[in-house]
Amino acid sequence: MTFTSSRVTPWAERRARPAKGKSGRELAHESAEKHVLGTAAYIDDLPELAGTLHAVAGKSTIACGKIRKLDLAPVWASPGVVDVLTLADIPGEKDIGPVYKGDLIFADGRVDFHGQALFAVVAESFEQAKRAALAAVVEYDEEDAILSVEHALQQNSFVNPAHTMQKGDAAAALAKAPVRLSGSLYVRGQEQFYLEGQISYAIPGEDGSMKVHCSTQHPSEVQKLVAEVLDVPINHINVEVRRMGGGFGGKETQAAQWACIASVFATRLNRPVKMRLDRQDDMVLTGKRHDFLNRYELGITEEGKILGADIELAGFCGYTADLSDAIVDRAMFHVDNAYNLHDTRVIGHRCRTNTVSNTAFRGFGGPQGMIFAECMLDDIARKVGKDPLDVRKLNYYQDGECTHYGQPIEHFILPELIETLEKDCDYRVRREAIKTFNAQNPFKKRGLALTPIRFGISFTLQFLNQAGALVHVYTDGSVHLNHGGTEMGQGLYTKVAQVVANEFDIDIDMVMVSATTTDKVPNTSATAASSGSDLNGKAAQNACQMIKTRLVDFAAKHFSVTTGDVRFENNHVVISKDGKEEWIAFGEFTDLAYRNRISLSAAGFYSTPKIHYDRKTATGRPFFYYAFGAACSEVEIDTLTGEYKVLRADVLHDVGTSLNPAIDIGQIEGGFIQGMGWLTTEELLWDAKGRLASASAATYKIPTSVDIPVHFSVRLFDRPNSEDTIYNSKAVGEPPLMHGISVWCALRDAVASVADYKVSPQLDTPATPERVLNAVMAMQALNSAEA
Ligand code: MTE
Ligand code: HPA
Ligand code: MOS
Description:
Elements: H1 11-15, H2 32-37, E1 53-59, E2 65-71, H3 73-76, E3 81-85, E4 110-111, E5 117-123, H4 126-133, E6 137-142, H5 149-155, E7 158-167, H6 170-176, E8 179-187, E9 199-204, E10 210-214, H7 219-230, E11 237-241, H8 256-269, E12 273-276, H9 279-285, E13 292-300, E14 306-318, H10 324-333, E15 343-352, H11 366-384, H12 388-395, H13 414-424, H14 427-440, E16 444-457, E17 466-473, E18 479-483, H15 492-504, E19 511-513, E20 516-517, H16 532-558, E21 566-569, E22 572-577, E23 580-585, H17 586-595, E24 601-607, E25 612-614, E26 619-621, E27 625-638, E28 644-653, H18 661-680, E29 711-716, H19 741-753, H20 769-786
Parallel strand pairs: 1-12, 10-11, 14-15, 18-19, 28-29
Antiparallel strand pairs: 1-5, 2-4, 2-6, 3-5, 7-15, 8-13, 9-10, 9-12, 11-20, 13-14, 16-27, 17-18, 17-24, 21-22, 22-23, 25-26, 27-28
This protein binds ligand MTE, hypoxanthine and dioxothiomolybdenum(VI) ion (MOS).
Dioxothiomolybdenum(VI) ion (MOS) is lined by residues 217, 249, 252, 360-362, 364, 528-529, 734.
């Protein structure tokens, strides 16, 4: 046999025990140690090449209007400046809109939001570029800006036409219903606040080629856009992403602009160019979660069963469409959450405002729809005087029923999951204890809520549901894995490596995953819609199976056995012959196969089956399956100050058969906290001039370790996915964010206790202490009006 590295455990030892780290095991994230030690390299940690320049954008100082004068002479004259770019200097395509046109790299004679990039400057140092960007002399003819959803609705200002989904006849159902109620909720957006900001590093190569290191969830789109902007074929550009310090949707489309700018500079100057947005620029220049203004009218029975619903959702898209069409659609898809609304009409507006173009954020509009379902259910409970959990149970979907977009409900395990959580967390006992507590305490009030999640898994645009993977097996039995998915901390690289280890039944340390690059796996989709492991796991499995088939065929011929006599076990290939077993170390076997001219490399592919959606009729099966979960949160508010804390949270979440329980639980914990932050402390505010007022960590408050619930339990609902996903697992990335809704419902429950649960308090989000206090005072005013 050939040389085997001393870093590889001897095969004899590997034979004596099961292979380590295969799928389903609680393996630490592949970079966990490096994350903790600080040795995991992000783009700004890469050693800078000699001659590297730094680019910074020059931003508008108004929200809306024409540019009367743009004098860049002072920018050119600034120390260290090497080049300045405006829209006219872009050699190829100037519009980098991901789905619809409209996203120009720089403003074209007019400004549509405060902070919009007008030009970019590149200098010897980042500080010099920052200073130079401020030197431009710009004069504007200011126009009236549209800065709110309400204003946009009133002005009919939309980035795209409204879309409607319908089931039955909502108007007729409402007219007949014995009880009617209506309500509204304003749900504010959220800043992604990834720890590593947007960054790209463009390095020119030979023959007009370009290597771009980019912190992006979508390397293929960045590759394509850079090529278009430079006016070169796509094969000239190679985009590499080893890891992101978080993406959360914010790097699905909005990493591209900075990659394009850096690449144009790099081409013009034939020097490496880095463009890194500092935190404030990042917050001002890139899109966030969409705010939503939601309204409903419901018809219900006296018992609180929903008969019909008329729902209007309006998303705050900013000045261009970006991904807003799909995001508002996903809000509409999730407005029923776990409940059969029966005759339903849902209309979704895409409001155009003079603010930065909003984009993907974990859940992709789903959370903004889902919270409204929970809001409606709580309102019904107050109206009919029942426990909110009982009203929820009354309205659950049942298998065989149909959503308002025509997807039938199947494998609906939610009632059972909730039953389990309800018992495990002592919901009923605590409900009584809270009533007693509230009766005894004049100022402190407690609230409790148990809320479910049903989240659709798949990109709603069918063609995006595909992935590729590249697997090389080397002669010593070590394996190199590459796939189209990107690593943003969610553990995708670890999970897909586990799939490969599982397929060959080899130790995980035999599998090496390297950076995602567009020259290894081409034409990939964004790592988004939680489908990274579903898609890339299957693609990697497909590649492994191709190689395995070749190896088994070869072994059968070579050892004169049938293919059924060959198996992969404990890092070995086992040949059964004449009642005896021959165990050949995997590394020896692959060397043998190589010597017999067997290809040990394969490119795998996967496309999700069963899904289709016709947007014209708004019907189909957009989702391969649903991920489920439920959370129960208990809070305590101070009715004198509005301050609160989360005393306890219990989460039970469905990840099918987990690929990696440790990583899945991490995703659920992180998702819960991120969702709670969205609905409690994170407040995005624009001032009257359209300037982002909360543009730094000083004014925008993300949750910290002290905000974690005092008692926090997260468990997996261990049940294989009924659909044929990779090892019957389920996607985990986005859904757990929506467990944060239970905290908001619990806060509302605590506030409602002030007026003896007789009315539903208006509690727009984020439910900051100030909003909680206002809601409490509104309840107290009702009490005194009654008295
Ligand atoms: N987890 C971490 N640590 N960092 C992230 O940026 N992004 C979330 C989720 N979990 C994110 C994360 C979002 S928005 C998505 S769509 C999924 O991860 C994407 O990865 P997956 O499809 O591999 O789950
Ligand atoms: N989810 C996330 N990202 C997306 C989607 C989606 O459904 N569609 C396009 N990008
Ligand atoms: Mo996630 S919002 O689909 O990147």
